[in-house]
Write a structure and sequence with these properties.
Elements: H1 6-18, H2 21-28, H3 32-46, E1 51-54, E2 57-60, H4 62-85, E3 92-99, H5 100-104, H6 107-117, E4 121-128, H7 130-133, E5 144-149, E6 161-168, E7 179-183, H8 189-200, E8 205-210, H9 214-222, E9 228-231, E10 241-242, E11 253-260, H10 267-280
Parallel strand pairs: 3-4, 3-5, 7-8
Antiparallel strand pairs: 1-2, 5-11, 6-9, 6-10, 6-11
Length: 281
C-alpha cells in the first residue's frame, strides 16, 4: 500500500494558494527546484500530471483540481492529530483584520475552532471594508489581513480562493423600474461591482439604503428594500441569492487573499494563516 507524504501535499496546496512555485518555496523555506521535485514525486506516486501551463504560469489541471480539496482535508486532519497529542504550546497575540461580511458569517466558527485548538493564542479581530483594511494608514494595525481582491491574478496579493459574486435578495422577475440597491458605503467592492454591471447592461438603478454592517444589510433585504451583492460564501443562510438571473447581469468572481503584514514569522501568526486558508478553501 502506497502512502502519500504530507509534505508533498502541503507543497501542492501552498503552490496553489500563493500562485507559484517560487513564492511557495519562499513560504516553505525551500528552493524552487526542491518545490518542483516534491510536485514531481507526488505526480509519480499518483501516476498523474497535476499541473498544466497557462501562459507563463503553472496551474492545476483536472486531476490537480480533484486532488486539491482532498489534500487540504488530509492536512487538516494531520495537523489536528499532531496538535491533540503534542506537548508543544503555541502562544502569542495575533491581530486579524477581516471584511465585515466574513466577520458576520463564516469566520466565527473558524475562529472558534482555532481558539479551541490553541487556547494560549490571544486573537484581536477587527472588521472593516477591505479598502480600509488595506489602507496604508492601517499597515501596522494587523498581523494578518483577509481581504477581497478584484484582480484575480494580482501578483502582490495572490488569491488562495476565488468565489462567485451573486445577487442577494428577491430579484425582480422583470425590470419595470430601477433596481433598488442596499449596499455598503463608497469603497466597497460589492457596491462598485453591482453598479458597474448594471450600467454596462443598461439597467437603471438607485441606492435606497447604505450600511457598512452585514447585519444591517440583511435586515434591509428581509424587509425587501432591495438587493445587494456578496461573495457566495458569505451569504447568510436565510437570504435567497442567484448568480444567474434572467434580468440582472452576471457579476463575475472576486478573489480572497490572506496577507501577512510585517516581516515577523511568529508561529501563532503562521498557524492562524494556515488554519484560515485550509478551512475557507
Amino acid at each position: 500500500m502506497k502512502n502519500i507524504p504530507t509534505d508533498s501535499l502541503r507543497t501542492l496546496v501552498t503552490v496553489v494558494e500563493v500562485g507559484g512555485f517560487a513564492k511557495a518555496g519562499e513560504l516553505l523555506g525551500l528552493s524552487q527546484p526542491a518545490v518542483s521535485l516534491q510536485i514531481k514525486r507526488l505526480e509519480e506516486l499518483l501516476g498523474r500530471k497535476l499541473f498544466k501551463k497557462q501562459g507563463q504560469r503553472q496551474i492545476l489541471n483536472h486531476q490537480g483540481e480533484q486532488l486539491l480539496p482532498l489534500a487540504k482535508q488530509m492536512l487538516k486532519d494531520n495537523d489536528a492529530i499532531l496538535q491533540l497529542f503534542s506537548n508543544e504550546t503555541i502562544t502569542g497575540k495575533v491581530r486579524l483584520g477581516i471584511p465585515s461580511e466574513f466577520a458576520a458569517s463564516i469566520l466565527p466558527a473558524i475562529i472558534g475552532d482555532f481558539v479551541s485548538l490553541y487556547p494560549d493564542v490571544s486573537l484581536e479581530v477587527k472588521s472593516e471594508l477591505s479598502k480600509q483594511l488595506m489602507h496604508v494608514s492601517n499597515r501596522d494595525e494587523f498581523d494578518l489581513v483577509l481581504t477581497l481582491v478584484e484582480q484575480l491574478d494580482n501578483p502582490h496579493y495572490p488569491s488562495f480562493l476565488q468565489d462567485d459574486l451573486v445577487w442577494v435578495g428577491n430579484t425582480p422577475a422583470k425590470l419595470t423600474e430601477p433596481v433598488t440597491l442596499v449596499v455598503a458605503p463608497q469603497g466597497c467592492i460589492y457596491r462598485r461591482r453591482a453598479i458597474e454591471a448594471l450600467e454596462q447592461a443598461g439597467v437603471s438603478w438607485r441606492i435606497v439604503y447604505t450600511n457598512a454592517d452585514l447585519t444591517g444589510l440583511t435586515a434591509a433585504i428581509k424587509e425587501q428594500l432591495g438587493v445587494t451583492v456578496l461573495a457566495r460564501k458569505t451569504v447568510p443562510e436565510e437570504l435567497p441569492y442567484t448568480a444567474n438571473s434572467d434580468v440582472l447581469p452576471a457579476l463575475g468572481q472576486v478573489g480572497i487573499s490572506l496577507i501577512k503584514r510585517g516581516q515577523e514569522s511568529l508561529q501563532a501568526i503562521d498557524k492562524l494563516a494556515e488554519f484560515i486558508t485550509l478551512r475557507l478553501s
